[in-house]
């Protein structure tokens, strides 16, 4: 291992996700294992700009592996979008003697980190943490698995009441630009229809499918709608449209919202966060920079931040067919 890196900073940025604490813990513990110092910056890039940080050792991350949220807090810093903001952050890192940063977050975090590193020569490693799973270069992001389980648990409960009252429920789930949560939770919870941004199935098809379900003897139905769906109507307008066109249906809407971002992380997310962050520390010590660590084909791999940002993590469209077949 190289000896030029003596002190690593870590932060969490963007929308929080379950498993971020497990990730912070793994950074602090790996630093302790390799005998280097670790500092945690609060509120992502904003804490770097304000020099708001805390010294971390192996004991400062005790009992956090099971906790949702992030002990370092998270934010979306507008100031970091400016070169003055990034300069302030670089000055603060120098003063704090921080040699490299580990950035836990999504694509906005990586974009900021890439520009920062190019401008100020500070090595960064990105760790994908977002419930949306919309990062290229990794099959899974930290928090996605927990969010899926939260959604499935909620839809199971909705199904109980939907079937008691013979109702049609539209359940909106998160995923601003990506349908991973909707598609996989929809299949897992046995939804009749799944609407995602990647595939505009059209309103006619939705009506036709619901009509067919009704005729086949179904008395209640669940439609999972990704918040980024491009059908041209929000979930409330959608429910109204269906009620107008299929008056036999008694339609209700549930927006799951930020409940999907909270909660104790699943074992999968804890292990993923732990493995990715140990690797992130090791790669920095090997002299690597401006990369992202990911979980690909069951192993930990790295790619350049540039590649992670320029390609899209595509959903598996075969899953739409699976859902179609199973909702017969
Ligand atoms: O973390 C990503 C995400 O969960 C998106 O799916 C959602 O649109 C967004 O966060 C909302 O985040 P906030 O309310 O923090 O702006």
Question: Under the CATH scheme, which architecture of the largest domain would be assigned?
Answer: 3-Layer(aba) Sandwich
- Gyration radius, in Å: 22 Å
What percent strand? 15-25%
Low-confidence stretches: none
CATH top level of the largest domain is Alpha Beta
Question: Which hetero compounds are present in the coordinates?
Answer: 6-O-phosphono-beta-D-fructofuranose
Number of strands: 11
| Biggest sheet record | 7 strands, mixed
Topology order in helix (H) and strand (E) letters: EHEHEHEHEHEHEHEHEHEEHH
Class of secondary structure makeup: alpha/beta
Tell me, briefly, the overall form: elongated
The proportion of residues forming helix, as a percent range, comes to 40-55%
CATH topology-level fold name of the largest domain: Rossmann fold
> What's the domain count?
2
Q: Overall mean pLDDT score? A: 96
Helix segment count? 11
How does this model look, in words?
The protein has 328 residues and is an alpha/beta fold. The protein is 41% helix and 18% strand. It has helices spanning 20-33, 45-50, 83-95, 107-120, 144-164, 180-188, 203-215, 235-245, 267-285, 305-310, 318-326; strands at residues 7-12, 37-41, 53-56, 100-105, 124-128, 168-173, 193-195, 221-226, 251-255, 291-296, 299-304. The mean pLDDT is 96. Strand 7, helix 7 and strand 8 (221-226) form a beta-alpha-beta unit. The protein has two domains: 7-143 and 265-310, Rossmann fold (3-Layer(aba) Sandwich), CATH 3.40.50; 144-261, Phosphofructokinase domain (Rossmann fold). The strands form two sheets. Strands 3-2-1-4-5-10-11 form a seven-stranded mixed β-sheet, with helices on both faces. The protein has a four-stranded parallel β-sheet with strand order 7-8-6-9, with helices on both faces. It has eleven helices and eleven strands. The site of 6-O-phosphono-beta-D-fructofuranose has 9 residues, from loops.
């Amino acid at each position: 291992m190289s000896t030029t890196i003596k002190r690593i900073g870590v932060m969490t940025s963007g929308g929080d996700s379950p498993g971020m604490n497990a990730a912070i813990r793994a950074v602090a513990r790996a630093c302790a294992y390799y005998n280097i110092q670790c500092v945690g910056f609060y509120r992502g890039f904003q804490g770097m700009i304000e020099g708001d940080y805390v010294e971390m050792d192996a004991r400062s991350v005790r009992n956090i592996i099971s906790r949702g949220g992030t002990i370092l807090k998270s934010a979306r810093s507008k100031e970091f979008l400016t070169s003055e903001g990034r300069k302030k952050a670089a000055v603060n890192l120098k003063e704090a003697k921080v040699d490299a940063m580990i950035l836990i977050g999504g694509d906005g975090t990586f974009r900021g980190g890439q520009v920062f590193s190019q401008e100020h020569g500070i090595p960064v490693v990105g760790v994908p943490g977002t419930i949306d799973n919309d990062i290229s270069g990794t099959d899974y992001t930290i928090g996605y698995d927990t969010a899926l389980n939260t959604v499935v648990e909620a839809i199971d409960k909705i199904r109980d009441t939907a079937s008691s009252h013979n109702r049609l429920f539209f359940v909106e789930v998160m995923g601003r630009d990506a349908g991973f949560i909707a598609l996989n939770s929809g299949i897992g919870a046995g939804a009749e229809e799944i609407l995602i941004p990647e595939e505009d199935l059209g309103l006619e098809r939705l009506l036709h499918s619901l009509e067919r379900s009704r005729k086949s003897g179904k008395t209640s139905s669940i439609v999972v709608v990704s918040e980024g769906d491009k059908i041209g109507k929000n979930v409330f307008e959608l429910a109204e449209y269906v009620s107008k066109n299929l008056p036999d249906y008694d339609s209700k809407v549930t927006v799951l919202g930020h409940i999907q971002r909270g909660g104790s992380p699943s074992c999968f997310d804890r292990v993923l966060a732990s493995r990715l962050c140990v690797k992130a520390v090791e790669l920095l010590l090997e002299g690597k920079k401006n990369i992202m660590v990911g979980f690909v084909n069951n192993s930990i791999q790295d790619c350049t931040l540039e590649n992670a940002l320029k390609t899209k993590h595509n959903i598996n469209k075969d899953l739409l067919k699976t859902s179609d077949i199973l909702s017969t």
